[in-house]
Here is the input.
Amino acid sequence: MAVKTKKPIAARAAVSKAGEISLNTSLTREQQLEIHRWMALNREFDNKISLLYRRGLVIGAAFSSLGQEATSCASAYALEKGDIIAPMIRNAGATLVRGMPPRDFLANYMYRTNSPTGGRDGNTHMGDLRYGIIAPISMLGASIALCSGYVLAARQRGEKRVALTWIGEGSTSTGEFHEDVNFAAVMKAPLVVIIENNQYAYSTPTKNQCLAERFSDKAVGYGIKHAVTIDGNDPIAVYETTKAAVDRARAGEGTQLFEVLTYRRKGHAEHDPAKYVPKDIQQYWEGRDPLARYEAYLKEKGFADDASIAKVYEEIRAGIEADEAWVMAQPKPDPATVAQGVYSSERHPAHMDDEFLYGRKYH
Ligand SMILES: Cc1ncc(C[n+]2csc(CCOP(=O)(O)OP(=O)(O)O)c2C)c(N)n1
Ligand SMILES: [Mg+2]
Here is the structure.
């Protein structure tokens, strides 16, 4: 069976021979190498989480972004200081690009006190506003409304902040997606929404949950212009498309949305061997792996060679090993503190009104 896949519609003036990567870019050699380093870190980080999960050291679900490194890293790279992101489960790369130290993320996965959730989460549902990172929200779609709230409040204060969030193609079929994108568009919220079409939502292939030809077509229903579908495994195309969208959002042109075509190379989470994926589809996308393609391109351009690429991975692995050792030495939370930070210790004013009006008491 020949693999049928939707083709990107964004015009690429020219692509390199090796890896088919866009050649029209404003990025310098150093910046292109920096994006490669982030993508390699994203991959090595995921590999480490996968190993720790197999060793029983990660007790929550472990989500991999294998094959989607370009969509997270190259897009987050287009933001500026003061911008915010609301990552989803496959956007660890974006979290790292925006400044969260890998060891914080690792410590969260291994539920240590010295981690963003203090050991209460055990996977990716954590953020850190010091880096402008809003924690992923389990209710799919809800991050879009949160981003709108954040940037609309910033706009009222006269700040030019832009928010970037990602949503899986499956999640665009929720009511929340529709309501939130519509609201953001009407309010001209400076927000960029990237639909990550990775071909599956759990075990459901895209064609079984949405008949739209392209997910970027949804934008027209909200009056959002410039929505395109691009090759999400081409980091240069992802960067340039995001940068243009971020610039438009910052200039007051309102909410932006586009689709990236990519592939979830593992199952939904580490427990899922994804046996439901036909072999030829898997092989097709493995042949379009974003890191392999980008490395072929960097070599063709003379920006890197086998030795320099090997060195990048070596340094990253050494860093991750050191981070793991640090995390293992951190304490796990004391069970007696389990309720801390869950409920407010102060009574909410709304409850006081309720008590006043109806005689109800809250504790
Ligand atoms: C509103 C809502 N419905 C269902 C779920 C359960 N759920 C979690 S992840 C997921 C699949 C999401 O698929 P997709 O949006 O394509 O993202 P991907 O996992 O492929 O990155 C589902 C159904 C949820 N968390 N929230
Ligand atoms: Mg998906």
User: Anything to note?
Assistant: The pocket of thiamine diphosphate (ligand 1) is lined by residues 90, 138-140, 168-171, 174, 198, 200-202, 264, 268 (CB under 6 Å). The chain is about 40% helix and 10% strand. The chain has a mean pLDDT of 92. Residues 112 and 332 are 4 Å apart (CA to CA).
